[in-house]
Amino acid sequence: MDAEGLHLNIDYVGSSGVVLSPEQKAALQTSLVILQNENKFHKVYFWGKIVGVKEDYFVAQGFDKDEFAGRKTFYSKDCIHWGLLPPATKMMRDQSKLAKGRFTGDPSYEYEHVETKKVGEGEDATEEEETLTIKEEDRLASVITEIDEDVRIVPRAAFIKTPTGQVISNRSFEGLSVSEAAKLCNYFHFREPQLISEKSILQRASLDKAIDFMDSVEEDIPRGSWSLQFERGSGLVTLRSLLWQGYVFCHVPGQRKFGSVYFGTGEKNLDLPFML
Fold it and tell me: Rounded distance, CA 87 to CA 90, Å?
């Protein structure tokens, strides 16, 4: 959710249980502006909150003009002081999946994972235990990256791809109509496309290269992993992810206003296919 006007826009997702105290709103309003100026970001977004056992992590992201490249993630425990998270590598992401349980709220906390390996062959084979340590800071960076890849969405035509390959905000975007907002095919995953290359030449011929360069939410597996609802008559549309419970996207039809936040424990709902 855009840091500009956060104190007003956060109320759009209030019906989903996303609430910030007046103190947190006031602190974020000031600290995110300072964060943007200090790092010379084009835009800063309030990403959400990951709830820990002892303390919570508030997360913000800074972007350059090209919103696909140069993304930096920050975390804070008091909404005032921000720490930079390391970029999540493939090795970090694989290791963080081994850490079980909720976040503690201490970035220096280390999870321990014990693996047993067989050494030797036949009767001489022996089992050795190998202990792997995973830092909570690395796990936090990995979970945020995974949530962004799996469920971060934007309305169709909100962003355009320039001939140079940059992804920038579309100034002529005036919001989806009420009938368009009711269809999942008008919401895209805000990431590099993964499914467009699998489409037939005939299907790709009907796509607008400047607008339809991302994957549609409609093609998500399993089907039914999104809950779409209208509120305030048809004055607000919200999409909730059932895969990452706590992720909420909102859009005001006919206006440029849209945004999303994640307020949850940072645990993926792996039972979803059996629940649908």
Answer: 10
pLDDT (tens place) for every residue of the chain, 276 residues total: 777 887 888 888 888 878 888 898 889 889 999 999 998 888 898 999 998 889 899 999 998 888 777 789 999 988 899 999 888 888 888 888 888 888 888 888 888 878 777 777 766 777 778 888 888 889 999 999 999 888 889 998 888 888 888 888 888 888 888 998 888 888 988 888 777 666 767 666 667 677 877 888 888 787 888 888 888 888 899 999 898 888 999 999 888 888 899 998 888 888 888 887
Q: State whether residue 112 is helix, strand or coil.
A: strand
pTM score over 0.90: no
Q: How far apart (Å, rounded) are the C-alpha atoms in residues 84 and 64?
A: 16
- Which tokens is 98 given? 């081994």
